[in-house]
Each structure stands twice: as C-alpha cells, then as structure tokens.
Amino acid sequence: MTEIEHFFTPVSGYAYLGHDALLRLAGEFGAHVRQRPVDIARVFAEGGSIPPAKQSDARRAYRATDIARWAAARALPVNAKPRFWPTDAAPAARAIIAVDRMHGPVDRLAGATLAACWARDLDIASQDTLSMLFRECGLDPQLVLDVAAELETQTLFEANTQAAIDAGVFGSPTYRVAGEIFFGQDRLDFVRQALERSS
Q1: For the structural domain made of 3-198, what CATH number should be given?
Q2: Could you tell me the maximum CA-CA distance found in the chain, to the nearest angstrom?
Q3: What is the pLDDT of residues 80-135, one digit of tens each?
C-alpha cells in the first residue's frame, strides 16, 4: 500500500483546508495517510521560514484572504482570523500521536483538531477542548490524555519533527510520497501524480 506522510501542525490553516481533500485522494488510490504532527517552531527555524504570526501585516492580510478563498473553493467553513491562533499545538499533536498508537480514529481526530481552530474558534491548547474533541471522536478522554503523556508519545513527536527537518520540510502541510515532498494543500494535484506513478 502506498503511504502519504502528512507533516503538519494542528494549528495550520492550510492543513485544515487540505485535510479532507487529502483523505479523499488517498481513498481513491487505496493509499494510507500517515499523520505526522510536528513541532512547527523547530521546522520553521530549521527551514528558514518566518512563522505566519510574525510575518508582515500585508502578508498576514493576504493569507487571511487566501484562506477564505480556498475555504469557499473547498466548501469548508472557516474563520480566516481565528480567535485562538496562534496557540500551543503540542498537546493536540501529542493527542493525535497517542490515538495513532492506540489504533484509534487518527484521521478523524486530526481533522477535528484542525477544524476546532479554524472553523469552531476553539483553543486546542485547552485540555477541556481536547477532551470534548476526544468524546466527539468516540474516544475516552482520560485514556487519550494518559497515552499522550507517555514518554513514547513525546519521543514519536520529536521523531516526526526530526524526520520532517531531515526531509527538507519547512512548512505545514507538507506531504511526502515515495521520498518526494510537496508543500502546501494547493499541491495536492502533484500528490495525485505521485500516487499515479506509485500505483
């Protein structure tokens, strides 16, 4: 089975916009999406990227407009200037990794955390918010929190981040298919071509 590695942070607006489209694309090809949340601050620093929140007013204004355009094109609800952004994405990232370790609905939780920030104006750094999302995904909140707090989960979070850096990732979302990376949800057509070559 072909694998699509999805390097992202749960507070990424563009990862939110691309998430459902990525899953649909993977479904078309019978591919597996490997959700790999990363410490985006480290990825930005190593890749020489300026975090969106620290970019110029002009770039931030354009980014909000672009996100709204893409949301309309993908028929997704969005608040292009969410109330809780930026926020600490590490708790949500570790929760996604924990659910993957538990063989739970990792794709659903990844999408839920992204939508919580960008469509529901919720703070995904909040344990209360995360617990609500876990319940919505049919998960036991305390169990997920316990697994998320384990050393192995943190080790995997760090491994995801290092793998992204080693692969040349510099932003979120980035997809990798057969060793080739594609930055941005607007590159999913190229991901499709890579899947066609891998089929």
Answers
A1: 3.40.30.10
A2: 44
A3: 999 999 999 999 999 999 999 999 999 999 999 999 999 999 999 999 999 999 99
